[in-house]
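Re: export button greyed out
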Amino acid sequence: MSAAELKAKTFDWFDERLGLRMARDLLDHKVVPLHPGTAWYYFGGITLFLFGVQMFTGLLLLLYYRPTVAEAFDSVRFIMTRVEFGWLIRSIHSWSANLLIFFAFVHMFSVMFTHSYRRPRELTWLSGIALLGLMMGFGFSGYLLPWNQISYFATKVGTDVAGTTPFVGPVLARFLRGGEDVGAATLTRFFAFHVMILPLISCGLIGLHLLLVQKAGMSTPKHLPVHDLSHMKFFPNFFLRELMVWYGVLALLGSLAAIFPWELGEKADPFASAPAGIRPEWYFLAQFYTLKLIPSHVWIIEGELLGLAGFGLLALVWVALPFWAATKPDGSGGRARLATGVGIFLVCYLFTFTLLGYFK
Amino acid sequence: MQGNPTSPPPDAGRRTLVSWLLGGGVAASLASFFYPVARFLDPPMVAEVSVNEVAAGKVQDLKPNSGKIVKFGNKPALLVRVNDTQWKAFSAVCTHLNCTVQYQEARREIWCACHNGTYDLEGRVASGPPPKPLEELAVKIRGDEVVISKRV
Amino acid sequence: MRAPKILFLLWFSVWIVPGSAAAADSCVTCHAAIDDAVKGPAALIKNDVHIAHGLSCADCHGGDRTSDDPDVSMNKAKGFKGKPARATIPKFCAACHSSPDYMRKYAPRERVDQFELYQTSVHGKRLAAGDTAVATCIDCHSVHDIRAVKDSAAPVHPLHVGETCSRCHSDAAKMAPYKIPTNQFQEYKTSVHWEALTKRGDLSAPSCASCHGNHGAKPPQVESVSAVCGSCHVLFEQLYEKSVHNAVFSAASGGGGCMVCHSNHAVHYPSTAMLAGPKAVCSGCHDAGTAPAGTATQMAGWLDGLDTALKKSETVLASAEQSGMEVSEAQVRLIDGRENLVKARLALHSMKPAEMQKPVEAGMAIAQATQKAGEFALHEKDTRRMGLAVSVLLIGIVILAIRLLLRRMESSS
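Workaround output, generated via the alternate export path:
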């Protein structure tokens, strides 16, 4: 039989058992609307691709990493120097982590500015925000694992800040650290978060998020009339384009890993004083710098408390966007302008304060 | 997917080129990704990850009341055989200005040639400029192998 | 009426009774209240180590500390000595400090021979001859606020010894009658020993007293310079004593030994510039063209050569490390190479080139081996970038192919 016949027969065999026809039909009918903002559709996929890269490289690193205080640093050095292409896998993992969070932010803001969070996509928005939080949790927990000076002290600072949350602060800090101080218990715990707990939750949420996207279809900016828009078939046209983009991202990752390999640092020494200018990773810098700026007491309220309350309020406003800023499906009504304003404010704030936190 | 299926494709040559380019490119690029992964999966010759332990030679290699310098991680260590059954090991980095210390058999003490600092066989400073004692390491005898490790 | 009186007396006695036990030192009570020259000491003694041990003014000056009546407390019959004459100060202090039985009560490990030593020193001899301008105990140790040597505010703490000596010895007016130069402290402050003491806080570094002695200070000639320097720099002394220079320098007047090349107070970091070149020390005695001058040049060349090779290796390794390559093993080996340079510099003091050759060769071997490792790492880095270029090229081909495919697909539909 010919290749085409073989292909059809194989498909039928699996379809009888798995119901693949349904998936193929869905894929055949999935379309991507074409308009000036179409390029923004790529960013969700890029984030997903980078997550996949993280799972894959993380799995490989897991074959050699040892999560104990005595051996963590040396095992990472072992990967960097003795394991063939260990340097590549590890540097890709570290660079991809940062790119993942960056593109997740871009994806979130592109969704926000196109107001795609509006009905019926509220759950998609909420699951997405939760995923962003999880990615940052991945970043925070993974950062400690090499157990070098910078990661040890950055974790100390980070858990200290978490401990200042009103009411739950001390309990939260103890939970994160596995004790009163950052130590062996923290490493074990962060390893568990990073390698099992967060991945399980993330995979569940990603599944939900993708399902919801398929169900609701691709959203279009509210000022454009939906029915007048031309479309592109998802498979194979948009998919092929997406593959190009993913390949391009892979090229970027490889280049970063080869030209700017991730450093090893020095083994953590809890008794040494913190390195000068210790600060968290860039995605926490804006909040970190804001907290630094707030005076220790504003009126009678403690400065840090005020800062955290401010973040909490901003987060609440942001998460609840679909509910207070919603426009009707036809694009009329709602507080879209206000929402856009909040979005612009947030982008500017994050950008400025991240830079300030980096250079100060 | 390919346009009008009944008429023969006008650019059959270009189509084959693109197919080859795509197929070959994908295959080659995937190979360039998975070759490093395959090499990564193959464990390296030296399996030991960290220096918690170092084999410091055979028991019979060191005479009683003598010492030798052994590499421990990236720092030197001093192994001293005090007598037939007693062994001591210390970090050989002098706490004054980081010169490498040595064992003095005649005086049964550890000496630093740089500024005449001396330590006793417990690592404590006996005389001279060193401000702190030498860090002591643990010595274990496994059969006829001497093993130095960090003290827990 | 009687109850309140009793209560008042009880209350008053609470203040009086313990007060009287502590203020049994009437010396302090009175002298602190008198507003003239005698008030000073009463204020100073709060920092004094003797007072801290429970002693009082009367234990040195005699008299009765329990009486408020000056005629009793400062009565000669009660042993009151008053202010001792300057010439008798050392004897005054030695009354306790030279008595082993007395000192054993307070500080059993303290030496009791300070006065004995002082009497052998120039200060002691001159004082005995009637010169009261020389240093006595109180000039260095201060008086009334005498602190222990290890108290960092004490004038005789290692960090302050130089200042204390130079109070007189850097004063041209004071030194003029004795015709002693006054530039020693100035020179010493340019030395490595001063740097070790003040910048690194290394209290084992020598100050004036370490080489000259403190109580038995015998300036300016030190009996055997190389033995003094050799108390820390042991191996250098051993080699020097066996070398030709020892005999030659010892015969010369004005002291010799290490001082001849390295100076006494202005001891700087040595370098090969001392061996060869315009500032060379060797050329002070050895004319150009002679065999010793040739040896000096040869040894300088070896040391410089090894130093350059080590530096080159360090640069390559640092560059490899900067590019993300792991070269810590080679860097550790290089430390051994540096140690060989140190050994070579030591061997120099034997004045025998053959002695120096061994560490120089060992060091060069290490420098070359580690340099190779560094170059290999840099080459590895290039290989990685080549690999990257290949991957990126392949990715580019795939992207191009997809674009062509899309163009073909979409133009025909």
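Chain C has three domains: 22-83, 87-218, 291-412. The button fix ships in the next patch.
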